[in-house]
């Protein structure tokens, strides 16, 4: 293993452990599962639909993550800045990039665990009927990528402030914008008064169209590339923010 | 081993560090003195690569802290102000993490962590979560983190701040034990500490170096250096005048019980002049002593010009 990987790995393990060493992690997992189940089965009329359909299950993920991803990301940098360990971390022989990658992957892995714990919903659906496996795989890939995007935004806002609450709120605002940017009702509304380039620009930022196409079981490389580029962009911005803080 | 060259740092309009330069060799223990807000922490944060300087540079064992930052940081151990440690980890996990980042694996890592817990006497709390530790233990855990890789250069920002006298003594002893093999910087505003552990001193005030030398040299710059304290069996009427007229005396302060402190104009000659005068006037001397000078006085004299904290 190269040194960069070893450093990122050490930071990854430290972050992941700190999720599970606080009771917040378990509360978080429970809230996630309860919300996913409640929204799918009650609000989503899972039973009334009388068909084993998981569209409602994935439909709510962007909204559940809207609260939970910023909550999972907010302490990544804010807490280090508040408690002074940032000074410790960045005087160790690790680069900013190694630290960002380690932390980001730990948070993403944590949300992936949450996602994996929804497996009983899938198993139930297979038991009750004969769902479209393509839709399930596409839905999970989409949801997984969505979690990554949300976390990359939450981590960026966490680097901007030592106050976790501010990080949380700002992340939600940015994510809400990105979420609505590609939402057909919003673009449909914009078309009436905004110039076309603006409508297209806003729509290009949004990730909903990509998520929706994955939800339909269309596993297209373009959707994955889009998600990856949003994440890389956010992590890169994260680096710039941290470097700027060093030299300010 | 460590070269600091014309460091400067400003935070907006505040000049926190102005043109600080010095060199450090193996075996040096540099006491970095200054009132609060003088720029000690900022200087250390630049040397350790946490902050970027606005001007100047630092070279650590040949590695430039700006251009070869990671290599330079490998040469350093750093105990930041207030000893920050990850609150949610146990002592053992925390030191394992540091050891891993420092490149130790497997048995080597275990050996290093065990050894350092032994040296820093934190073995009893190894399974305890850091946020439940007392200040003294937390300080030593952070200290352990700084010396785990046996760095040639060790930088400590107020290492004994907030500790009780016993804990201070432990930390000082640990520093003395390492002094031969490393170059060390300690910032402090506790002056007795400088006497206890340092062989070099730099006093900074408002971001500038205002004095440097060995602790003894700096004591010599204090107004009380070479002052003579004289105790007589009785006080003749003319004694004040007789002492004040001595060319090497600057000022005479009488105290009770026939005691006088004579502050020098010329610290080298004063003692002899006082002795001669006593013989001439046939005073009976009960006791006489020469003051070495106090670091504290030098410190006050040099740093009281203007407010440092902002
Ligand atoms: N991050 C910062 N932003 C703005 N001003 C700062 C910052 N850090 C330190 N300062 C200012 O720089 C000066 C030196 O501070 P510092 O190096 O912490 O002093 P010391 O450690 O000697 O007490 C102080 O006036 C302080 O207010
Ligand atoms: Mg300080």
Question: What's a concise summary of this model?
Answer:
Chain A contains 14 helices and no strands.
Q: What's the count of strands of chain A?
A: 0
Runs of chain A in which pLDDT lies below 50 for 5 or more consecutive residues are none
Class of the largest domain in chain B, according to the CATH hierarchy?
Answer: Alpha Beta
Class from helix and strand fractions of chain A: mainly alpha
Structure description:
The complex is a heterodimer of chains A (about 250) and B (about 300). Chain A is mainly alpha-helical and about 250 residues long. The mean pLDDT of chain A is about 85. Chain B has about 300 residues and is α/β, with parallel strands linked by helices. Chain B folds into two domains: about 210 residues, P-loop containing nucleotide triphosphate hydrolases (Rossmann fold), CATH 3.40.50; about 60 residues, Alpha-Beta Plaits (2-Layer Sandwich). In chain B, the strands form three sheets. In chain B, strands 6-7-8-3-9-10 form a six-stranded mixed sheet, with helices on both faces. A four-stranded antiparallel sheet of chain B has the order 2-1-4-5. In chain B, strands 12-13-11-14 form a four-stranded antiparallel sheet. In chain B, strand 1 and strand 2 form a beta hairpin. Chain B is elongated, with a radius of gyration of 24 Å. The two termini of chain B are about 35 Å apart. The chains are: A mainly alpha (about 250), B alpha/beta (about 300). Chains A and B meet through helix 1 and helix 6 of A and helix 2 and helix 3 of B. Magnesium ion binds next to helix 1 of chain B. Magnesium ion (MG) binds next to helix 1 of chain B.
């Amino acid at each position: 293993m190269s040194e960069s990987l070893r450093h990122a790995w050490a930071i990854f393990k430290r972050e992941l452990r700190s999720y599970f060493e606080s009771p917040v992690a378990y509360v978080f997992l429970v809230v996630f599962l309860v919300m996913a189940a409640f929204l799918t089965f009650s609000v989503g009329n899972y039973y009334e639909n009388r068909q084993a359909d998981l569209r409602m299950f994935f439909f709510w993920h962007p909204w559940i993550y809207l609260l939970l991803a910023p909550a999972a990301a907010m302490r990544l940098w804010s807490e280090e800045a508040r408690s002074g360990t940032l000074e410790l971390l960045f005087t160790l022989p690790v680069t900013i990039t190694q630290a960002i990658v380690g932390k980001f992957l730990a948070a993403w892995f944590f949300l992936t665990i949450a996602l994996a714990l929804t497996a009983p919903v899938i198993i139930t659906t297979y038991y009750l009927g004969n769902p479209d496996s393509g839709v399930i795989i596409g839905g999970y890939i989409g949801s997984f990528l969505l979690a990554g995007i949300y976390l990359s935004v939450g981590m960026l806002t966490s680097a901007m402030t030592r106050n976790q609450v501010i990080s949380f709120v700002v992340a939600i605002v940015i994510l809400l914008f990105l979420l609505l940017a590609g939402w057909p009702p919003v673009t449909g509304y914009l078309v009436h008064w905004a110039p076309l380039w603006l409508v297209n620009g806003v729509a290009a930022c949004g990730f909903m169209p990509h998520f929706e196409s994955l939800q339909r079981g269309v596993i297209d490389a373009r959707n994955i590339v889009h998600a990856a580029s949003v994440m890389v962009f956010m992590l890169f911005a994260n680096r710039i923010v941290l470097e700027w803080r060093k030299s300010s | 081993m460590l070269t600091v060259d014309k460091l400067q740092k400003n935070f907006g309009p505040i000049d926190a560090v102005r043109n600080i330069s010095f060199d450090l060799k193996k075996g040096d223990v540099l006491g970095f003195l200054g009132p609060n807000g003088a720029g000690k922490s900022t200087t250390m944060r630049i040397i350790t690569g946490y902050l970027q300087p606005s001007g100047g540079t630092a070279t650590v064992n040949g590695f430039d802290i700006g251009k070869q930052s990671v290599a330079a940081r490998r040469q350093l151990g750093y105990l930041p102000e207030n000893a920050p440690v990850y609150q949610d980890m146990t002592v053992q996990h925390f030191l394992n993490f540091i050891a891993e980042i420092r490149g130790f694996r497997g048995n080597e890592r275990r050996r290093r962590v065990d050894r350092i817990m032994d040296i820093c006497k934190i073995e009893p709390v190894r399974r305890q979560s850091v946020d439940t530790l007392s200040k003294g233990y937390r300080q030593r855990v952070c200290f352990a983190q700084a010396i785990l890789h046996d760095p040639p250069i060790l930088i400590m920002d107020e290492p004994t701040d907030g500790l009780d006298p016993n804990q201070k003594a432990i930390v000082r002893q640990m520093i003395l034990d390492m002094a031969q093999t490393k170059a060390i910087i300690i910032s402090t505003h506790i002056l007795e500490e400088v006497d206890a552990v340092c062989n070099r001193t730099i006093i900074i005030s408002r971001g500038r170096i205002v004095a440097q030398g060995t602790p003894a040299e700096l004591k010599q710059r204090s107004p009380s250096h070479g002052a003579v304290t004289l105790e007589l069996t009785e006080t003749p009427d003319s004694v004040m005048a007789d002492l004040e007229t001595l060319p090497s005396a600057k000022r005479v302060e009488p105290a009770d019980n026939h005691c006088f402190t004579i502050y020098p104009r010329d610290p080298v000659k004063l003692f002899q002049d006082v002795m001669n005068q006593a013989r001439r006037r046939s005073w009976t001397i009960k006791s006489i002593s020469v003051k070495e000078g106090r670091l504290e006085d030098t410190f006050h004299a040099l740093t009281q010009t203007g407010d440092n904290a902002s």
